[in-house]
Amino acid sequence: MKRILIVIILFTPWIAKAQNEKSLMADSVRAYLDSSLNIIRKHSLNTKINWNDLRSNVYSKAVGANRYEDILHLYPYIFEQIDDHHGSLKFRGKTYSWNKKAVNPVNNTIATATKKYQSVHAENITKDIAYILIPGNTDFRGKQMDSIAKEIKNAISKINNQDIKGWVIDLRVNTGGNMYPMIAGLSDLIGEGKVGGFLTSTNEPDGAWIIKNGSFYVDSVKVSPIKYSGYPIKKDIPVALLISGNTASSGEMTAISFIGRRKSVIIGEQSGGYTTSNLGFKLNEYSGLNLAVDYAADRNGKIYPKYLIPDYKVLNGDDFENLNNDLKIKKALIWLRKNK
Q1: Which of 19, 60, 114, 204 has the greatest count of CB atoms below 10 A from its CB?
Q2: What pLDDT, on a 0 to 100 scale, did the predictor assign at position 18?
Q3: 12 to each of 17, 18, 311, how far by Cα in Å?
Q4: How confident is the model at residue 101 (pLDDT cuts 50, 70, 90)?
Q5: Cα 262–266–268 angle (5° rounding)?
Q6: Cβ contacts of residue 117 below 8 Å, gap of 6+?
Q7: Cβ-count burial 233-260 (b if 16+ within 10 Å, e if not)
């Protein structure tokens, strides 16, 4: 009896601690974390995680949580562990994500222009070179697909004519949104055929980007019925795309759709690094996960897991007020004239 009593005394503190930790986390909180971690494990692009360790660490940090609000601060940590700075938790209108330090911080001119230029703008830089700026959008639910695509096509048609020998497409202030109307709007400049797509972490196709008869499709689903009605765009007309550290997410996807196209070039600075496709997962009636589930690939199947590197790097020198003084546009004009 004495030995048994000693054993009980020695192990009781550990048993009590485990029971105490379990009792300090509400069942609803544990279920919420379980649901989140199960979804993340099943769909995350990062397959090199020790999921048991991650779950254990998260539960340890959640000890004492009685409400959902007590664990929201853990989600940036979770996204950092799976290396997903594109994903987030949405909870009652607030976003919780990993604020990864930018590899290529944008300059003040780009930052200011991103706030200022929020609508499509087109003009002639020279008599034979056209320019169009395409900002990001907030059409995350796809309710403005046709209107955004139409805005882009109309802007192109207003300045395109028989004299135009090349285009500058400015994506420097395109922070993302819905990529589909952007590519649909530019489809006549991108050209026909497969122009890119999404691939899973195991390189399985998960949606090909296809342009057919001027319309943009994802696999066999037409994105927008809007047609271009201006002066015909010359086949393989030279196109120079401008990118910056603020070119992100759908802005990067739009640039990728041109990679591999004949007579296309990317000029500027390394992009923002959000080259993944996100998918939403509902957790309850007022919250859900937004998780990176696919990589973007160009028409030749090359995957862009992190960011885009321009063909010609031009740092700073941005001037949105006077395009002829803009160093990136100057480089674009030189390239376009050589490739007419």
Answers
A1: 114
A2: 38
A3: 8, 10, 66
A4: confident
A5: 165
A6: 133, 135, 173, 320
A7: beeebbbbbbbbbbbbbbbbbbbbbbbe
Q: Residue 92 has which token pair?
A: 């009652």
Q: Which residue has the tokens 């696919």?
A: 294
Smallest Cα–Cα separation from 61: which of 17, 98, 24, 12?
24
The answer to whether residues 231 and 151 touch, using CB atoms and an 8 Å cutoff, is: no
Backbone angles phi and psi of 257, in degrees to 5: -65, -15
For 53-92, write each residue's pLDDT tens digit: 999 999 999 999 999 999 999 999 999 999 999 999 999 9
Three-state SS letters, the chain:
CHHHHHHHHHHHHHHHHHHHHHHCCCHHHHHHHHHHHHHHHHHCCCCCCCHHHHHHHHHHHCCCCCCHHHCCCHHHHHHHHCCCCCCEEEECCEEECCCCCCCCCCCHHHHHHHHHCCCCEEEECCCCEEEEECCCCCCCCCCCHHHHHHHHHHHHHHHCCCCCCEEEEECCCCCCCCHHHHHHHCHHHHCCEEEEEEECCCCCEEEEEEEECCEEEECCEECCCCCCCCCCCCCCCCEEEEECCCCCCHHHHHHHCCCCCCCEEEEECCCCCCCEEEEEEEEECCEEEEEEEEEEEECCCCEECCCCCCCEECCCCCCCCCHHHCHHHHHHHHHHHHCC
- Residues 127 and 208: their CA atoms lie apart, in Å, by 36
Strands 88-91 and 287-298: antiparallel
Reported as a single tens digit per residue, the pLDDT across 131-189 is 999 999 988 777 899 999 999 999 999 999 999 999 999 999 999 999 999 999 999 99
